[in-house]
Amino acid sequence: MISESLIKGLIEEHLQGSDRFLVELLIKSGNRILVFIDSDTSVLIEHCVSLSRHIEQQLDRDEEDFELNVSSAGLDQPYRLVRQYVKNIGRDVAVLLADGSKISGKLVAADNEAFEVLEVTKVKKVVTENKHRLAYSEIKETKEIIKF
Fold this sequence. Notes:
By secondary structure, this protein is α+β, with helices and mostly antiparallel strands. It folds into two domains: 4-72, 2-Layer Sandwich (GMP Synthetase, Chain A, domain 3), CATH 3.30.300.20; 82-144, SH3 type barrels, CATH 2.30.30.100. Helices cover 22% and strands 43% of the residues. The protein has helices at residues 4-15, 45-58, 82-87, and strands at residues 20-28, 32-39, 67-72, 92-97, 102-110, 114-123, 126-135, 139-144. It has a five-stranded antiparallel β-sheet with strand order 7-6-5-4-8. Strands 1-2-3 form a three-stranded mixed β-sheet, with helices on one face. It is elongated, with a radius of gyration of 19 Å. The N and C termini lie far apart (43 Å). The model has no long low-confidence stretch (mean pLDDT 95).
């Protein structure tokens, strides 16, 4: 089995000096390697191809076969890192708390301990704003609300 530390090292080596970063690395049975990256600006297909080639060049398929998939974290994926929260300040998010309750609103702040969501409700022309400061430990997941 290919080691996670080896792959993580190769990823960090390749991404060093760029605004791209590793979000998640999964190594499944049969050496199926899944790499999800994000960026402070954008992730292009060329970035994924370049990282994939870098990893493949460092591994020997004759020694140990593998399947490699490198992609961006994707809009439908929950935020996993503080850096993703900071990057997405100003966007609308849906938050599922550990207790099962939900909050949706604009992500207005994020730091290493918590993030803030401004929830706006309108009932009979009365607009109410409620700011929630949520510790990362009290949430199950946060996803961007995609609007068309």
